[in-house]
Amino acid sequence: MAPLGNLVRLLPLDLNEVPTHSYLDPTIPAASSANNGKATANERPNLLSFIEEVLDQATTFAHDTLPATFRSKGNKTSKPAVAKVELLSRMIPSSDIEQVPWMNSSIPRNWSGNVKKKPREAWFARRSLHANASSEGTADLDEFDYGLRHNHSKHEQDYTPDVFDTYRVLDWSEQIAAELSKGHLIDGYSQVDMSSKYLVAKSSVRVFLVADRFCLKVHEMCHRLPAMLSNRVFPVLILTAKRGKHAFIVVQIPIDIRNLSESMYSNGRNQTMGGSKLKRQKPVLGVYTSIESCQMLPNRDVEWIMATASDAKGWLPMWAQKLGVPGAVVKDVGLFIKWIRGKPPLTRPGGNSPAMIAAAATSADYKQPV
Predict the structure, then answer these.
(1) What is the pLDDT of residues 301-310, one digit of tens each?
(2) What is d(CA 238, CA 55) in angstroms, rounded to the nearest whole number?
C-alpha cells in the first residue's frame, strides 16, 4: 500500500506552496522546468506538476488506502436515494502524520511542512452504488458529473441547506488554458475543467457539452451553524478532473488565506462588505479536506466514494464533531439525489431518448479507470 501523501491533508497549505498566480507573492519563483517541475526550497510548484500530484495522491487514497485501512460501520439509508450507503471511518494518529514525507516529495511543502505540531485526522467516508439511470431515487453518470464536478462549490451550496455562501478567491483557469494550448497534458487525466461546461438555456433545459477540462480554484465555503454557535468558513483549494471517459474526481484541500487581500471571510473583509446581515457576521475559520471519486463500474452501476476529515475549530470539541459528521456524510447522498431529480433533464449529444442514454452508458469505448 502506498504511503500517505503530503498534499491532501488536514494541515492547511501555505500560499507559497501553490502554483504561481498574479494575486500571490511575486518574489517566490516558480519551479524550473529543468528540474521536471519539482519545487525546491523557496520555489512554487509547477502548475501541471502540482495538479498531477494532487490527483494522484487523492486517487490512491480513495481507491487503495481507503478500502485497505478504513473500518466499515455498516450500511445506512439516505432517502430519497434508493442505494444503500456504506459508512466507513479511520483515525490517523499524529504519529502517522509525522511520518508523511512532507519535504521529500514531488511537491514538497517547504513552508507548512515545518509546522512542529501536525493535527491527527479523523476520517469518515462513504461508498454507494447507484443504478446508472436518470430516474427517481438515482442518477446517471452524466448527472453525477454535472452536479458534483462542474461548478462544484455552487452546486454544493444549492443542495446543502446550511451552506450560505461560496466565495471564489483564486482561479487558475487562464493559466491552465495557456498550458493546455501548448499541448501539455497530465498523465491519466485527459480532460481538465476550467469552468462549467453545462449551460442553462432560455428554456431552462440544461445543455450537456462534451468538452471538459480541469478546474483549480480557491473558495471560502460558508456554513450556517445552529443558534449560539458562530458560523464556520472553510477556505479550500478545489481541484476537479475527469479520469477517462467514465470517471471523475473532486479534491478539496484546506489553505491558509488570512493574509490574502482578495479573501472575503478569512481576512474579516466580510464584516464591512458582506451583502447581508448573515454574511457580515464574524465567522470561525475551520479546516476541511475531502476526496470524491465517481466512476461507472463494469456492471454499469455508478460508484460514488467520498472521504473527508475536518475540524470546525472554535468552542466545538472534536468529540462532539465526531458524533455529528457521520450522519452528515450519509445525509448528503439523499440531498444530492433530491436536488438532481428536481432539475430539468440534461440535453445530451444525440438526444435524450432512453435508447440514446443507454447507448452512451454502455458504449464500447468503456474502460475501467485505473
Answers:
(1) 999 999 999 9
(2) 11
Q: Which among 183, 250, 162 has a CA at the least distance from the CA of 214? A: 250
pTM score of the predicted model: 0.88
Give the model's confidence band at 316: pLDDT under 50 very low, under 70 low, under 90 confident, else very high: confident
Residues 6+ apart with CB under 8 A from 227: none
Closest CA to 188 of 248, 141, 147: 248
Q: Is 114 exposed, middle or buried (0-12, 13-18, 19+ CB in 10 A)?
A: exposed
- Please spell the DSSP secondary structure of 144-173, one letter per residue: HIIIIITTHHHHHHHH-TTEEEEEEEEE-H
| Strand runs labelled E in 224-316 | 232-242, 247-254, 284-285, 287-296, 302-311
Instruction: Render pLDDT for 37-90 as a digit per residue (tens, 0 to 9).
Output: 567 768 899 999 999 999 999 999 999 999 999 999 999 999 999 999 999 999
Burial class (CB in 10 A: 0-12, 13-18, 19+), 24: middle
Per-residue pLDDT reduced to its tens digit, 278-314: 999 999 999 999 999 999 999 999 999 999 999 999 9
Question: Within 10 A of 242 (CB to CB), how many other CB atoms are there?
Answer: 20
- Measured between alpha carbons, how far is 279 from 302 in angstroms, rounded to an integer? 37
- Rounded CA-CA distance 321/331 in Å is 15
Q: Distance between CA atoms of 124 and 307, rounded to whole angstroms?
A: 6
Contacts of 150 (CB under 8 A, 6+ apart): 193, 196, 197, 198, 240
Task: Report the distance separating Cα 180 and Cα 200, nearest Å.
Answer: 26
| Rama region for 18: left / alpha / beta (φ>0; ψ in -120 to 50; rest) | beta
Print burial letters for 281-318: b (CB count within 10 Å at least 16), e (below 16): bebbbbbbbbbbbbbbeeebbbbbbbbbbbbbeeebee
Of the pLDDT bands very low, low, confident and very high (cuts 50, 70, 90), residue 349 is: low
H or E segment to which residue 96 belongs = helix 94-98
